Amino acid sequence: MSANLTILKTDNLSIGYKSGKKQSEVMSNINVELKRGQLVCFMGPNGVGKSTLIRTLIGAQKALAGKIFIEDKDFAKISAAELSKLVSVVLTDKINAGNMSVRELVTLGRYPHLNWSVTPNAADLKQIELAIDQAKVRPLENRKIYELSDGQLQKVMIARALCQDTPILILDEPTAHLDLNNRIEMINMLSDLAKETNKAILMATHELDLALQSADRIWLVGMNQPIINGFPEDLVLNGKIDAVFELKGFDLRTGRLEKKVGKGKVSLSGEGHAYLWTKNALERNGFEVIDDSEIQIKIKPYPLSWYIKNKGEHIVHTLENLIEKIFN
């Protein structure tokens, strides 16, 4: 981890909006950094200024004070053409791509690298193919953009950003329109890409559970609080995440929803996934799992079944029947 090189950093950055001589500060004293080979998840409640910071980091709006450095160069001295080779962006804004195909949209990512003839060479074509595969949009490559779902379009926009082949990739809520399976695929893909390509990837997200399992670092910000740049597990153990999100009904120690108990106590023996999901079903239905109880449940793996000792002895073959039996 210490071998990673810092590619972007801020120095007492203040962000917000100007209107004439008046300015409205959204966030101040921002001192954070992005390192090559790391996926950083940027997290906090709505309205704290995450999108404002992202727009500032990509040059879409000016900082109120302080500085940004990319590869130790003052951001203010980096030209638009140079910046397009350093930072690629995926925002949540809708695009109007007309009759363009997926492949054509991905190809746009190469434009910062093309010469005056705007003709892709062999290296450009190779990068286009690589980006399509990295973002897992190969089955969509000949589809028209207007035919895509919001989730599919988001993955295509990531492919376009990967095609740009910059050392920094910044994304604003890239999983917002994806189902659970695709959200997991997306964050795993970004985590792998950071390590395999040595990119610095910054991702604003609300996916706390996935971020804790995949991010190398978290930028954590609360209302009227400075950004905390920390190791995910440290932010759990020191209470920073709980303080910012004021989690209700979610136990960060276990990464699970807290459930009210009161239906009784059971003892459970077994192993593997069957044990974990049996415990989940019991706790979800209000039972506390302890070491020793009058109600005893033993998981038998082959074939999968549950032996219950409760007012007699019983064997059931589904968890639904298990819950019904111990309720009686």
Question: Any overview of this molecule?
Answer:
- This protein is of the alpha/beta class and 328 residues long.
- The chain has 2 domains: 6-251, P-loop containing nucleotide triphosphate hydrolases (Rossmann fold, 3-Layer(aba) Sandwich); 259-327.
- 32% of the residues lie in helices and 27% in strands.
- It contains 11 helices and 18 strands.
- The strands form 4 sheets. Strands 7-8-9-4-10-11 form a 6-stranded mixed beta sheet, with helices on both faces. Strands 1, 2, 3, 5 and 6 form a 5-stranded antiparallel beta sheet that branches.
- The model has no long low-confidence stretch (mean pLDDT 88).
Amino- and carboxy-terminal Cα gap: 54 Å
- Which structural category do the helix and sheet elements fall into? alpha/beta
Helical proportion, percent range: 25-40%
Which geometry do the CA atoms define?
Answer: globular
Q: What average pLDDT do the residues reach? A: 88
Radius of gyration: 25 Å
The third-level CATH topology of the largest domain is: Rossmann fold
Q: Number of domains in the coordinates?
A: 2
Question: Major β-sheet, in short?
Answer: 6 strands, mixed
CATH class of the largest domain: Alpha Beta
Counting H and I runs of at least 4 residues, what is the number of helices?
A: 11
The CATH superfamily of the largest domain appears as P-loop containing nucleotide triphosphate hydrolases
